[in-house]
Amino acid sequence: MPAPMPRPSLSAEAARAAAAQAEFNEKKWVWVPDEKEGYLAGWVNKEQGDTAEIIMAAGGEFRNVPLIALSKMNPPKFDRAEDIADLTFLNEASVVHNLRLRYGSGAIYTYSGLFLVAVNPYQHLPLYSDAVIQQYRNKRRDENPPHIFAVAERAWVNMGDERENQSILITGESGAGKTETTKKVIQFLAAIATDVHMPSHSRSPTLTHSNSYSGVMPAAGLPRSTPAPKRGHTASPSVTGSGFTSKGRLGLLERQILQANPVLEAFGNAQTQRNNNSSRFGKFIRISFAPDGSIAGANIDWYLLEKSRVVVRSEAERNFHVFYMLMAGGGSIKKDLLLDGDVEDYEYLNRSRREVDGVDDKEEWTALKASLEVVGFSPQEQIDLFRIVAAVLHIGNIVISATRDDDATMPHHAQAERVCYLLGLPVDEFKKAVLKPLARAGHEWVSQARTRQQACDELSALCKTLYEKSFGALVERINQALDRPSSKSTFIGVLDIAGFEIFEVNAYEQLLINYTNEKLQQFFNHHMFVLEQEEYAREGIKWDYVNFGLDLQPTIDLIEASGNVIGILSCLDEECIMPKATDLTFTNKLNTMWAGPVPRHEEAHPGRHKYEPSRFEQGFIIQHYAAKVEYRTDGWLEKNKDPLNDHLTRVLAQSSERYVASLFADYTSSGATVGKKRGLKKGAFRTVGQRHREQLASLMAQLQATQPHFVRCIVPNAHKKPGRVDVPLVLDQLRCNGVLEGIRIARLGYPNRLPFVEFRQRYELLTPGIIPRGYMDGREACRRMVKTLELDEAIFKIGTSKIFFKAGVLAELEERRDLLLFDIFSRLQAASRRWTARRQMRKILNRAVAIRTIQRNARVYGELRDWPWWQLYTKVRPLLAATRNDEELRRKEAEILLIKERAERDKQEREALQNLKMSLEADKRKVEDALEAERALAMDKDSLLERSKKHEAELEEEVLALQGDLDTLDSQLDRVMKLQKESEEKYEAMREMFDQAAEHLVRLESEQKEWAAREDELTGQLNGATEELDALQADMEELRKVSEELKNLAMQREEDLERVKDRSDVHFKEMEGKLNVEARNRELLKDKADTLEDEARQAKEQLAEMARTANEYSTMIQRKEERIARLTDELDASSVAAKQAAKEIIDLKSDIDTLAAELNAERQDRNRGVAAQAKLQAELDDLRTVLNAKTSEETRRDEAEKSLEQEVASLRSQVSQMEAEVTDARRTALELQGKLKSELEHNASARPKHS
């Protein structure tokens, strides 16, 4: 670490501060508003009424300014304050001046009450090294300068202490540095999580540096090692290299988490006018931690990928980074992907900016490949990702032209062949799906010729859909590598989402992004202001509710409302399904609802004040929290819908490339089973707005379940220049982000709080002897403690369960506690050192006594050695002991023999034990191997059990769906019965008509003799009747053909049913061979349920067909009834003339024949219906048998079985009724036919006699 920069002496600093303070005290300094600079410094020369004469500090210019427009200036000692809340005068000018001073000195992080403000420096500042990370480990916030690492450390500590999930919300406008801040948070968390199990001297990880970003978010610097009244800042080493500064220490999971960011940035980030590495999607990264503090896994949720950037963007911006990386460094991969050109050769790249200053796309490609390998992407998976990128480029080069009929055509096939080669599609099918797709029209498929513009739009939609689905698969693959869920883990979530956007032309994408930021800002306001004040009310603290005017709900309702007054997104969804709806009708509808007159009996919606119609363009204006934004509604309906036609999605789903087919697996279907396809996609079709609202609701639910930490990123200037501060721009962001309001409520309120128990446990040592032994109410204990601590009543409040403190009070108590603990531990250490010293002294004294004793004994021995008698004793003693020595020697020898024997026995026993030990160890290894095998088998069984449970849950859902189908079947059966009843009524009417015809025939016979003379005139009319009879016979032939078609259709349905049953049997046999004994019962249940579902669906289709047949017959009968009525009118009209009588006779005869034929056809149809009912009854009986077999295992099947039995009984009764009615109708028709024929024959025989 380089040596710190030399600092002036404390005396020089003190002298300079004293001089500045003296100069400040001589004048009344104020801030004067300025249009260009925001605020300028000056002092008051004199005041006149409501105005003041100000002398400007820069140039000495005199200005007359209203007093209300002036802002007070803080003393110089508050310059570069680390927490804006510490300023004496809290106003916009003071806040932005403090940020500007800190920004100029390289300190870009500043606390603002409870959250952190970060200003983008647009340059690389070397302040993210391992030493900086260690500097912020296990430190309180006020012990170090402001830093993003301090926020991450606080989230880490809170997660461990409170066992509560944490979230860090990094928000701000585009280009403010949110993405780099996210990477630094992940870097810090990975480092401290690794430190849990690794030595502290190891280096920490850093993210791979991305040269595509020129605005890294650095820290303010390092504090000095020794405390001082004002912290200095020393520089830390720069972060260089590949980013793996501690590769030997990091585990695979940590490295994968770190390297997932470069992969996401390559595919999801792009260069824009405001940011060289702008995130064009939002992400919420959850890093899970085990109870011991180590990283247990990670998960990434993504939102709002700007897929339109793939095909169109402004000239000053680029496509996603990966396109240029692949073109610059692809090498052999480019050849495999048929990319034989440069950036200029591809339409989707050559019409916008191609390079970014200071960025080497080839180096970025190398870093991307390395990151993909670390995350775990195989070479084939990498090729699949780049295959989609290359396919998009080739699709962009496809040329579409128009014929004379304005039909689209593809004159050159080379590019289409390249696309089809990469995507695994047949060229002819691809061209047909783009130029002349098949569409469903009733029961048939028809080809629709596309215009040139429609075909181009289809290709653009294909590119956007391909890229979006591939990006979703990329994130899902990363989650597979990182996500390792555990019920005991807690997580820290880091939110990085696109900031508020205002462009020259704001489209649908900008509305969704700004809507998301509106919701996040509402969450921030609710947490910082509303919840804070609500907790004061719950705790019974006296507090005057302060309305900071930050309620964004009217704007949110304007966008997402779905009640009586629908919002913009709901209105757009509604227009998407309306026929002949256009972007103009959508805009007009919005203007009518939100800008039109309000009915008298209704109150105006608060959102109406946030909406304005656009004056000169097709669009509208919304007043967001940041600013007014004008949106153009061109193309919104198409952007909100699924843009691809069904024909093209089916072709993609049947791709020979597995990866491409998997992207469109939801669209898998054949042209002959359109009904099933729609059944599979039922509920899958959602508009873009609906999908985003669901994702956003899920995100807000997750955030509300965490303890949030806020980081507000600020754009200092619009030119991406380091060291420059555009004060008006910064002020707009401070106002929009609620920074000033957050500081005010932090100063007015009580941001720090502790439960009574925790406060007593932590600070009771500051008040010894105050709380007696035994139980005492927590509130009373806290009251005694704060009284003993001599705290001012204005800086704390005692609630019902917590004690609240003003900002900084708890930090002061913590410092007093640390000092007391330091004193206690110092005394403890002193006592320990005293006891150790005394123990050492006792050892020294004992050693001295021992030495003196040894010396005294040595002197005595010297004197005794010179004594004659001692000398004689030493010579005689060995002789006296010789005999004893011999005896002792023999005894020892005997003992030695015994010892040798015992040693031999011990040796043998030891060898036996050694052999036994070796055999036991071998057995132990065998048992361990068997145990390991059993554990593996148990794990397999557990996984299999989990899959079985999942299958069982899916089966239950299918049973519920089947129950719904059976209910539908009942309703359809009711409709069939109703139609049958109507047919009976019509039969009754027909019988009445027959009776009337018979009576009329008798009258005609009595009048026949009177009109016999005019018989010749009736002959011509008889010929006309004959022709009409031929026409009726032709109609009857057509009906017979229809009947045959219905019969063939029924036979085809039966064959389809048999094929479905065969496929189900084959599937059952395949599954039966794969599963073990534990899963057989559940798989059998699944197969039976599948069979039940297919047969029930077939039965439903048959009943629907019967209902349609009954409707056709009813229509036919009604048509015949109308004809009979018309003929009756003709008979009445011709009653005057005798010629009409003969015509009526012929007509009645022909009608009788026709009715007889119709009755026969009806009888045949009824017979076929009875057969179908019998077949359905047999199938339902089989289903009931299957259900009865599974009754003991699944009690839920009882309801389905009962409903089936009721249905069978109902069908049986209906069949019997239908048979009886058909028999009655047949008998009645035969009687009438016989009667009429006999009468006609009688008349015919009587006519020759009369003649």
TrEMBL record:
SUPFAM superfamilies (UniProt xref): Myosin rod fragments, Myosin S1 fragment, N-terminal domain, P-loop containing nucleoside triphosphate hydrolases
Domain Myosin motor: residue ranges: 79-818
Ranges where the record places region Actin-binding: 696-718
Keyword Transmembrane: no
One BP term from GO: actin filament organization
Listed Basic and acidic residues bias regions: 1191-1205
Key words of the record: Actin-binding, ATP-binding, Coiled coil, Hydrolase, Motor protein, Myosin, Nucleotide-binding
Annotated family: Belongs to the TRAFAC class myosin-kinesin ATPase superfamily. Myosin family.
Name used for this protein in its record: P-loop containing nucleoside triphosphate hydrolase protein
Source organism phylogeny: Eukaryota, Fungi, Dikarya, Basidiomycota, Agaricomycotina
